[in-house]
Specification:
By secondary structure, the protein is α/β, with parallel strands linked by helices. The protein has two domains: about 20-210, 3-Layer(aba) Sandwich (Rossmann fold), CATH 3.40.50; about 240-340, Arc Repressor Mutant, subunit A. The protein has 14 helices and ten strands. This is Transcriptional regulator GlxA family with amidase domain.
């Protein structure tokens, strides 16, 4: 929907009557992260009607108690003019990240003041979390039975605390209709731009992206870009075999060779490998090769064909297929995002 025009134009020659802007309330508490607070204000706050005259959103910040000064996780304190009553008239409520502290991160129960504030959201309002804001929603049952995500560093914690949630650690955001969750930090920008597209179409979302100087679209199914640690060559279990393989990613590597390097049978090695990494040896090897391809795409001007060979994929077609499956993007798209043309 692009137009906010209401039926009836009034007197002849009058400008069309417009619906009130969509009201967005951003709910923060002590320990909030300023960057995440700024995302909805920047993305929604500058969105205008196609003629550029009227704001499409009215964005306000509110806190869990009475209007007050709210301390961030740094040396920034924000004087918030609205209490939780602002949630009762909001069309969309955004819960940004908060630095790790409190019962939401320990027992999975949202703090009483935050829980009470979330309980004031009116029926039918859209609820959005950025980064660890998802843990606040989870702690009051708003994500029960739903697919959701959060920052990759906290997805295992979310699974442990909330087994009833379908946690997806490998996406930038999840749109489940009236409840949407995003991964860490900049993924909140992707989610807010997605909401702009959903509300008002691609043209307005692209205009806001250009003015914000960010990519106009990264699909929600695109994987979070996570660096994975190099195994310790002197460590226990399968770590030496993994370290050995990391030095030979450009070569063909068989399961039998990796098991032999660990002095285990293939069956034992496969079982131990999955216990230690959560992946099969084949899955782990593909991910490590994709990680190497990412670094070469970011740091070099090598052709995709040469990168494929250096990473052990053999052909550019194989590299493209594995990057699409693993990251949700092609090598060219990845390079365009992380190594823009000078």
């Amino acid at each position: 929907m692009v137009s906010r025009q209401l039926p009836g134009h009034g007197e002849s020659g009058d400008r069309p009557t417009l619906a009130p802007p969509h009201r967005v309330a951003v709910l923060i508490t002590d320990g909030f992260i300023p960057f995440e607070l700024g995302i909805p204000h920047r993305i929604f706050g500058i969105a205008r009607t196609p003629d550029g005259h009227e704001p499409l959103y009215d964005v306000v910040t509110c806190t869990t108690r009475e209007p007050r000064a709210v301390r961030s996780d740094s040396d920034v304190t924000v004087l918030v003019d609205h209490g939780p009553e602002a949630l009762e008239s909001a069309d969309t409520v955004v819960v940004p990240a908060v630095r790790e502290h409190g019962t939401a991160f320990t027992s999975g129960v949202t703090a009483p003041d935050m829980a009470e504030a979330l309980g004031r959201i009116r029926p039918g309002a859209r609820i959005v979390s950025i980064c660890t804001g998802a843990l606040q929603l989870a702690g009051v049952g708003l994500l029960d039975g739903r697919p959701a995500t959060t920052h990759w560093h906290y997805t295992d914690l979310m699974r442990q605390l909330h087994p009833e949630i379908q946690v997806n650690p490998d996406v930038l955001y999840v749109d489940d209709g009236d409840v949407l969750t995003s991964a860490g930090v900049a993924a909140g920008i992707d989610l807010c731009l997605h909401l702009l597209r959903r509300d008002h179409g691609t043209a307005i979302a692209h205009d806001v992206a250009r003015r914000t100087v960010v990519p106009p679209h990264r699909d929600g199914g695109q994987a979070q870009y996570v660096d994975r640690p190099v195994p310790d060559a002197d460590g226990p279990g399968t770590a030496p075999a993994r370290a050995w393989a990391m030095e030979r990613l450009h070569e063909p590597i068989t399961l039998a060779e990796m098991a032999g390097h660990a002095a285990m049978s293939v069956r034992t090695f496969t079982r131990r490998f999955r216990e230690e990494t959560g992946e099969s040896p084949g899955q782990w090897l593909v991910r490590r090769r994709v990680d190497l391809a990412r670094r070469l795409l970011e740091d070099t001007d090598l052709a995709v064909e040469r990168i494929a060979a250096r990473c052990g994929f053999g052909t550019a077609q194989s590299l493209r297929a594995h990057m699409q499956t693993t990251l949700g993007v092609s090598p060219t798209q990845y390079r365009r995002t992380f190594r823009p043309a000078a």
